[in-house]
Amino acid sequence: DAGITQSPRHKVTETGTPVTLRCHQTENHRYMYWYRQDPGHGLRLIHYSYGVKDTDKGEVSDGYSVSRSKTEDFLLTLESATSSQTSVYFCAISVGGGADEQFFGPGTRLTVL
Amino acid sequence: QKEVEQNSGPLSVPEGAIASLNCTYSDRGSQSFFWYRQYSGKSPELIMSIYSNGDKEDGRFTAQLNKASQYVSLLIRDSQPSDSATYLCAVNRWGAQKLVFGQGTRLTINP
Questions:
Q1: Considering only alpha carbons, which residue of chain B is nearest residue A106?
Q2: Which of A91, A97, B36, B43 has a CB 3.0–4.6 Å from the CB of A104, allowing a cystine?
Q3: Nearest to B82 by CA among B13, B35, B28
Q4: B32 touches chain A (CB under 8 A)
């Protein structure tokens, strides 16, 4: 499982509340990614990081922010959750360069009511 | 045109037959190509990586890459019911440190 954990694994929250999802890795990989997966849309990149404090946007970054203050942790924050952000969120790491093989965490199922 | 396209299926194959999954991509500069398997309710699992034109075999799996035609395929020989899953194709975008995923093909192996 490439030493990736995500927390929480399941969360139900209400519209307008802030939510933070955590991705933790144990192997000091430089590149980390946050994706969301929805029926009919496949995996879509939200944000990614290429080092501590170095992050960039993906294709669906609106409404999300990220932070990486330590190599091992990559946080995804929904500042004010909306129902459209109900999804399954996956964290991934790249073991080589950023365009190389990626390995995924177990996922977080988020429901926004 | 989507950057990475896959037939969403479902693709139904009898047990023991060859399952053939296809993926096309639009960025001619793409260098890295991956196949992931995802069981329902689970995270994607990397099963094949291919970087050069031609075939790459790993057990019952063969990945085929044709950069001139911009497609990559995955063959599964002697298909088993345990191969029933969604298969995701992923391609790097030239010059970018990220992958683009297709929507996935749902494969069902019928006993």
A1: B43
A2: B43
A3: B13
A4: yes
State the DSSP code for B27: -
Which two three-digit tokens encode residue B85?
Answer: 């899953």
B38 residue type, one letter: Q
Pairwise CA distance, residues B59 & A7, whole Å = 35
Rounded distance between C-alpha atoms, residue B12 and residue A83, angstroms: 34
User: What's the pLDDT tens digit per position in A29-85?
Assistant: 999 999 999 988 889 999 999 999 999 999 999 999 999 999 999 999 999 999 999
- Do residue A99 and residue B103 have CB atoms under 8 angstroms apart? no
Taking the C-alpha atoms of residue A56 and residue A75, their distance in angstroms, rounded to an integer, is 13
Does A45 contact B43 at a Cβ distance shorter than 8 Å?
Answer: no
Contact A81, A11 (CB under 8 A): no
Helix-strand-coil percent breakdown of chain A, rounded to 5? 5, 60, 40
- Is the CB of residue B26 less than 8 Å from the CB of residue B33? no
